[in-house]
Amino acid sequence: EVLSFVKGGLRDLSVSRTSFSWGVPVISTREDGAEEEHVMYVWIDALTNYISALGYGSGEDGDATKYEKFWPAAVHIVGKDILRFHAVYWPAMLMAADLPLPKRLFAHGWWTKEGQKISKSLGNVIDPVDLVDKYGVDQTRFFL
Q1: For the chain, which end, N or C, has fewer CB atoms within 10 Å of the first or last residue's CB respectively?
Q2: Quick one: 17 exposed, middle or buried, by C-beta within 10 A (0-12, 13-18, 19+)?
Q3: 28: helix, coil or strand?
């Protein structure tokens, strides 16, 4: 999927949108001085949380020891439905900032129950406590 997307040609990624209201609100000033209401594309904010949560960008008085210890990530484990964001957009953002990339990316498939993707909205979730009761703590931890 990712290779096909990249082979199709890459274009600039707009980091803000005017076509919807959910997201991080930002104001953009046009060349004529008028202000436009935008929202920041949520993936821009979400992906930067990986490094800001570790203290990156905390300034001279901040504590970046976690960033220095844990970044770059040894492996990013993501669901296949968000693979493009983690395999294309996030590396592009990191390279633009001259920051190291995660060392490896692993995308997993969906868990299914009776042939359907497990989803809170569908209500077909599996309670991990039930798995522990049936199989044990260590077995469930290994499986998950």
Answers
A1: C
A2: middle
A3: strand
How far is it, in rounded angstroms, from Cα 87 to Cα 101? 10
Alpha-carbon separation of residue 110 from 51, 77, 119 (angstroms): 26, 13, 10
pLDDT digits (tens, 9 = 90+) for 47-69: 888 899 998 888 777 788 888 89
Q: Position of tokens 């991990």?
A: 128
The three-state secondary structure class of 63 is: coil
Angle at CA of residue 89, ends 17 and 49, nearest 5°: 80
Written as six digits, the tokens of 56 are 């990156």
Nearest to 36 by CA among 25, 48, 28: 28
Total-model pTM: 0.69
Distance CA 89, CA 87 (A): 6
Quote the tokens at residue 102: 């995660």
Listed residue (44, 34, 136) closest to 90, CA to CA: 44
Q: Which amino acid is at 129?
A: V
